Amino acid sequence: MTTFLTVLVATVAYLGYRLQSLSVGGAITAFVVGVGILISFGYEGLLVLAIFFVSSTLLGRVPTRKFKREHEVRTVGQVFANGGVATLAALSSLLFVDDELAMILFISAFAAANSDTWATEGGRRWGGRPYHLRKRGRASIGRSGAITVVGTLFSFVGSALIALSGSILMLDGEWALLMTLAGFTGALADTLIGAFIQEERKCIHCQSMTEEKRHCGSKTKISRGVLGIDNNIVNTVSTMVAPLLSLFIFLLV
Ligand SMILES: [Zn+2]
Known about the structure:
Elements: H1 2-18, H2 24-61, H3 76-95, H4 99-126, E1 131-132, E2 137-138, E3 146-147, H5 149-170, H6 176-196, E4 200-202, E5 209-210, E6 214-215, E7 218-219, E8 221-224, H7 231-252
Antiparallel strand pairs: 1-2, 1-3, 4-5, 4-8, 6-7
Bound molecules: zinc ion.
The site of zinc ion has 6 residues, from loops.
């Protein structure tokens, strides 16, 4: 079973690379994430990863006329930002952390990643013009630090989906509410850091604001925020906030 699932993980990572959804590094990181979760939590853990991966990918493919969907090749940083912390939480169960606690931390981290992705994909498709938390006004669609009502609902449902399925698969149906709230809070932290701390860059050619390091064939310039705090760092932090919150409450009760 484990051998079969390891081959399955390798195949998915390889296909991701072949279909240009993942860079070489991204594919290797995805493989490490999959196998790390598999050896820690077996197929149940892998199923939680699959629900995150499939649901957020499908949501990101829903056709829309609101914006042009650019083809994105996910790198090491992007894969780690979504699954790195969850994998470390899973691996902690092999060392010294209580199994139940490690599972809660693992599911909470993925709940945050899913919550954030769902908020972004749902919000920019069906949410209308977002409100920017720092600028206190309307922002362009998809911008970091901006929220919509619809996106916030998606954020909650995205977190609940992972928390509920993880709870049923791994924790006999327990801790679902805690993990839902933790994941949702992680995504909220993502938005707040995105609004107030994350670097914003500007294209030197077309003057558009972007998160990309390159635009129109040249390097972009930082226009505000903290240099180096990019989207990947913010996403990684958000997947850390959720398990830390769960840890705090777990130790409290
Ligand atoms: Zn440009």
